[in-house]
Amino acid sequence: MVVPGSQHIEDKMYNPPAELQRDAHVPDFNSYLALYRKSLENPEGFWKEVADEFFWKKPATGPMLQYNFDMTKGNIYVKCMEGAKTNMCYNVLDRNVKERNLGEQVAYYWEGNSPDHHMAITYRQLLSQVCRCANVLKQMGVKKGDRVSIYLPMIPELVYTMLACARIGAVHSIVFAGFSSDSLCERIMDAQSRILVTADGVYRGEKLINLKQITDEALEKCREKASSTVTKCLVVKHHALRAKGGAACNKLQTPWDSECDVWWDEAMRDAPEECEPEWLDAEDPLFILYTSGSTGKPKGVLHTVAGYLLYTSLTFKYVFDHHHDDVYWCTADIGWITGHSYITYGPLANGATSVLFEGIPVHPHVGRFWEIIEKYKVTKFYTAPTAIRLLMKYGREPLQKYDLSSLRILGTVGEPINPEAWHWYYDVVGRGKCPVVDTFWQTETVNVLLCFVLANGKHLATFPFFGVEPTILNEHGEELEGEAEGYLVFRRPWPGIMRTVYRNQERFENTYFRKFPGFYVTGDGCRRDKDGYYWITGRIDDMLNVSGHLMSTAEVEAALTEHSAVAEAAVVSRPHKVKGECLYCFVTLKDHREFTHTLVEELKRLVREKIGPIATPDFIQNAPALPKTRSGKIMRRILRQVARNEKDLGDLSTLADPKVVEILFSQRCEAA
Ligand code: WTA
Fold it and tell me: What is the residue range of the signal peptide feature (predicted)?
């Protein structure tokens, strides 16, 4: 997908290499169309065939999909394979080891933050670790339906824990280990988790992060706000064991509460390697994952077992044209949906071999990604535009030291990719030989619109995945035919769509279904061209996308107004060379408070503490007043223009006090 205004540059077709095409699951556009039509015309037969690859303890009694998308006709719901019983963990591990003879195949090459730390984990070893962890959780009192919060870096134990939850029917709620203690506390409280799994500490690049300390602060905050539901905290000795040597090791003080805290290695030592999976209903919850909501309070997106299994496994197979000899690497963090679907569940369901990377792209040197691709002979590589833009800055030289000839397919996700980054990815990383699959999706949807590797030729625009029926509506909810631009919505569900917002069905319905009854509303704008390709044009609500991380203006504003000097705050996005978008904040101070450099630093620190480093504002501007309508609504459009220094303001007649705009322009920040 592409940034608005630049489509015309990229209205060009690219053809994949013949050898890729020969063996592909979807060898050409007509095969894509045939499969796509089948998926819409006969969803029952289409999804049944997918389900037949997996193990069902009891077959379904209901249809493959049942739903209501129309609020005027009752509650919104989606159900897949009602009556069936299965287990996700059994399907992604036991089935591969026992039925498909993949026990000795590597499931993950784990590569640590430091190149000295690495290990290979086979499917058999993974199964055994997962079963032991499942037994540890059971011993701690975790039962089917209980929530387990996981606050871990990208280490094998993260995968063990999530699959252990899936095995015993516990619902995992993974919180990205870059979030602050406030964010962690909020997510623990909303999920009412019984157990928290974390690690002592972790290096991200050069920086040592004391995860256990953040965890303790989060639990303390939960206790202050309400009685905490967390009874035990399981702590992986990651830093102390793996990052041995050097004085740095001694820098970390791990706070310890012997009532609550349990060391992972001690608990795992005696745990049995056998654990019977819990046979779950198809629609039992698999996990909750929090995503930003426009009110500022994160939404617990809930996914269920059977539908998510079918959809992640099928999307992985087709999006990356998976073959058994591939080595696949997705650089996302499992703390985000991309990691859930395309590091853990999708690849494992296909018996794939993946790289699991703990580190960052520029440590210990800026060629780290390319070094890893050479080391493991990675064939399929999936990353985000922000990472590409970051690495582009260092030019071609860091790549030229490594052999990247193993690469076959490149993928991108998370935000619109700008043509410059796309070309660098295609020409420099892929040497013009690897199709780039741009995948558009959301925490709520799993992969929905994408460039099929071989099925279509315009690399920045997409077609719907099987079973997905997009359409474009105008402001009045009327469907637009042919070439059109408007709201991207979906007319019917597919197995992997979210089921609800955890403990808040009302919010689920209001957020996604109220605006246009009968449709799931994505919140993104979209254009359909004359050939039927979809081009995402970006968010059309109050959400920001910083380095591929979605956040709401409201949550940053709430953090800023917690400062005693701030009366009011408004946050908008401003384009950024690497991050895509960055945060530009306007603050109105209380009477007699002064806008100083120290205050700006305090505010930045506050946002980091409240949300996490990803939300750190790049710009904070003094705003003696904000542009408001007569009814008091902040006009963000104007603030965006001030942030971007766009002087052509159009109609200002709805403003209560147009003078405000001049003042804001005179005080705008040029540089961060
Ligand atoms: C944006 C991440 C353009 C979009 C998987 C969406 C994209 C939001 C793309 C979801 C893409 C994601 N092109 N925009 N390929 N992928 N987006 O929930 O605005 O973290 O609504 O899921 O990211 O972000 P989320």
Answer: none
Q: Which residue has the tokens 């399929």?
A: 380
The answer, yes or no, to whether any atom of ligand 1 lies below 6 A from the CB of 254, is no
Can you tell me the distance from the alpha carbon of 92 to that of 486, in angstroms, rounded to the nearest whole number? Answer: 39
Pocket-testing residue among 441, 448, 458, 524, ligand 1, by greatest number of atoms within 8 A of Cβ: 441
What 8-state DSSP symbol labels residue 458?
Answer: B
SS3 state of residue 369: helix
Alpha carbon 596 to its chain centroid, in Å, reads 36
Q: DSSP secondary-structure letter at 73?
A: G
Summarize pLDDT for 132-152 with one digit per residue, the tens: 999 999 999 999 999 999 999
Q: Quick check: 375 and 406 in contact, CB under 8 A?
A: no
Phi, psi angle pair for 506, to nearest 5°: -65, -40
Residue with tokens 């496994």: 313
Measured over the CA atoms of residue 547, residue 550, residue 552 and residue 558, the dihedral's sign is negative
Domains of the chain from N-terminus onward: 361-434 (3.40.50.980), 547-667 (3.30.300.30)
Regions of the chain where pLDDT drops below 70: 1-13, 243-251, 452-461, 631, 672
Per-residue pLDDT tens for 382-418?
999 989 989 998 999 999 999 999 999 999 998 888 8
